[in-house]
Design brief:
By secondary structure, the protein is of the alpha+beta class. Strands 1, 2, 5, 8 and 9 form a five-stranded mixed sheet that branches. Helix 1 crosses helix 3. The structure holds fe (iii) ion (FE). Fe (iii) ion (FE) binds next to loops.
């Protein structure tokens, strides 16, 4: 059996069992009601071709600092300092490989010093849903995806805080369903470079590397590293980066990764 036939055999078996993509971070074992009708009629060759480019993006833990408020805005920087990031997220339905319009995308992250708005006093972490303790909402925003499944944010490179590598959180809602909870991670080389310049180098606490971060390891974080590029060929690092991330989700999946 050649390599292609092996893949075809494996996928065909998978189709017979669940018609689902393999993803340990996005379990959906009771989802038989949402198996697409194409599973029974689509040719295996077509299935392989389509699903090969639409494997599910891994989910990742929500963390304690989500605030469910609809701050509809693209620029979430407010008064914070740091390296500018222009981020684009494209939401894709893994069952059809088509864009997902009208998805509500929440983004939240810490500032260069590892501080989340709403929790600026760094309260003790509780297992239940945490209520914001201050009125600030910097580095938080919500966008609705357009017909291309796209949302954009103007933000800053995140700092680190104790026990975590730098990351950005996001949640995707489709109507009332929380379909996906994820985190954006960054290449170690870029993190090191950025942490060597102000204001990031003012933070004295030890930075945890990606491979030391338990969530990064457990949730296949290497698959959620965004590819950052300088804003232009001649731009300095201080001028910022752009990044695009395709987030392939099952719109009918109900995430179990809410903090509480
Ligand atoms: Fe976090």
């Amino acid at each position: 059996m050649d390599v292609y036939s092996s893949i075809l055999f494996f996928v065909s078996i998978s189709m017979m069992s669940r018609c689902d993509a393999e993803n340990i971070c996005s379990p959906n074992p009771n989802d038989s009601a949402t198996i697409p009708s194409s599973c029974s009629s689509e040719s295996p060759q077509s299935f392989v071709k389509r699903y090969a480019k639409c494997s599910l993006s891994p989910e990742c833990g929500e963390g304690p600092y989500f605030v469910e408020e609809d701050l509809i805005r693209e620029n979430i920087i407010e008064d914070r300092e740091g390296i500018p990031l222009s981020l684009q997220f494209n939401m894709i339905d893994y069952r059809t490989c088509e864009p997902i319009p009208n998805a509500k995308f929440y983004l939240w992250q810490p500032d260069y010093a590892g501080i989340y708005s709403g929790f600026m006093d760094k309260p003790p972490i509780r297992r239940e849903r945490m209520i914001p303790r201050d009125p600030r909402r910097f580095l938080r925003g919500t966008q609705i995806s357009d017909s291309n499944g796209t949302v954009n944010f103007e933000t800053l490179f995140p700092g680190h805080y104790r026990g975590r590598t730098p990351h950005i959180h996001f949640r995707i809602h489709l109507d009332d369903n929380v379909a996906h909870i994820g985190q954006v991670f960054f290449d170690e080389k870029i993190i090191s470079q950025i942490n060597s310049i102000p204001p990031y180098n003012q933070v004295k606490s030890r930075r945890m590397k990606n491979e030391e971060d338990g969530e990064f390891s457990y949730f296949n974080g290497e698959k959620s590293i965004i590819d950052l590029k300088p804003i232009s060929a001649t731009a300095s690092m201080e001028q910022g980066f752009t990044g695009i991330m395709n987030v392939v989700i099952d719109p009918f999946h109900q995430s179990r990764l809410m903090w509480a």
